[in-house]
Design goal:
By secondary structure, the chain is an alpha+beta fold. Among the domains are: 16-106; 189-325, Heat Shock Protein 90. It has helices at 2-40, 42-49, 61-147, 153-179, 184-187, 189-203, 222-243, 284-295, 331-344, and strands at 208-214, 247-255, 263-270, 299-304, 310-317.
């Protein structure tokens, strides 16, 4: 810390000494010039050499130059004061901008927290209300199916009800998985991603999906883990809706060479039709991803061109300096909810 303070303070001390050094140099140069002028009698020499042009009033030239020098000095002083005022105003504007950006990140993170809280509440309601009613309907249908004769209309209707309940349960299970990543709080980010990517492989067998998960991903900050999951989820959703790609590559790599450089690199790259990089906006999904990443002090880059695929590249700190993530439930309640979602549906 002392070395850092010394490096920081040295330029300030040097800049404070610069005016006095400059003033000393100007005084020294003036005295040296006066001594040279006296030694060689410069004014007499100039007077003798310009005697032939006396009718042009050349002798008044020194006084004229003196006025010019004074005017230039006044002009420089005025420009200096104006420049200093502009610099002060610019520093104030930059400080204000930095404050506004900080407030924007804080508000964005609060919005993301509220969004995740609503998603968890909706997933819980779907599980507790709709899931239980579906189980009750299926149980009654199975009871009717067992009591009715196999060729009876009631048996066929009960079998259809059971099949419909199974279909709705699968749909609800997938919807709950999108609203709240199953196992993220219990098993960690790696297991949650593996589960989600396996589901993507099953639902889109026509598309090749390559996955690269490296580094310790289960001890990341909660907000970082959720942001990474949502980033990959949104990226693959865009691939399914818009890209028309034949292959997709997903990469999540944590590089921890030093504590100060502990970051996670995320990429979702496809070989689809791409998009126009000069467009004003690439969609609300990309905007939401950018807000999530920047709220945690990360960086998001989009690389695309028509016919050249679409690449989402992000970098996040593993431990944000200020994480405003607040769960609306204790961890043990989240764990029990996730387990019940997996076991019931």
């Amino acid at each position: 810390m002392s070395a850092l303070t010394h490096c920081t303070d040295t330029p300030a001390r040097r800049s404070s000494r610069f005016p006095w050094v400059d003033a000393a140099l100007v005084c020294g140069a003036t005295l040296l010039a006066a001594a040279v002028f006296v030694r060689f009698e410069l004014m007499e020499t100039i007077f003798d050499s310009t005697r032939a042009w006396e009718h042009l009033q050349v002798g008044e030239l020194p006084a004229t130059l003196l006025v010019l020098v004074a005017g230039l000095a006044w002009f420089s002083w005025r420009r200096y004061r104006e420049t200093r005022r502009e610099l002060i105003a610019r520093e104030a504007a930059e400080a204000r901008l930095a404050s506004l950006l900080k407030d924007h990140r804080r508000l964005t993170q609060q919005y993301v927290d509220l969004q995740e809280s609503e998603r968890k509440a909706l997933a819980r309601e779907l599980h507790d209300e709709l899931g239980q009613y579906l189980n009750a309907i299926k149980t009654d249908a199975v009871a009717i199916q067992r009591r009715a004769a196999r060729d009876a209309p009631a048996h066929r209707a009960a079998s259809a009800i059971v099949a419909h309940c199974d279909h709705v349960q699968e749909t609800v299970r997938a919807l709950i998985g999108r609203l709240r990543p199953i196992g993220l709080d219990v098993l960690g980010l790696r297991a949650a991603l593996e589960h989600y990517l396996a589901l993507v492989r099953e639902t889109t067998p026509q598309r090749t999906l390559s996955v690269r998960l490296e580094g310790e991903l289960d001890d990341l900050d909660d907000a970082v883990s959720l942001t990474i999951y949502r980033l990959i989820q949104e990226g693959l959703t865009n691939v399914s809706r818009h890209a028309g790609a034949r292959s997709v590559s997903v990469s999540v790599v944590r590089a921890r060479e030093r504590p100060s450089s502990d970051r996670v690199a995320i990429s979702v790259v496809d070989d689809g039709r791409g998009a126009d990089p000069t467009a004003k906006t690439l969609g609300l999904g990309v905007l939401g991803m950018r807000e999530r990443v920047e709220a945690l002090g990360g960086e998001l880059e989009i690389r695309t061109a028509p016919g050249a695929g679409f690449s989402i590249l992000a970098s996040l700190p593993a431990r944000p300096q200020q994480s405003s993530y607040r769960a609306d439930e204790p961890q043990h309640e989240l764990a029990s909810t996730d387990h019940s979602l997996v076991n019931t549906l």
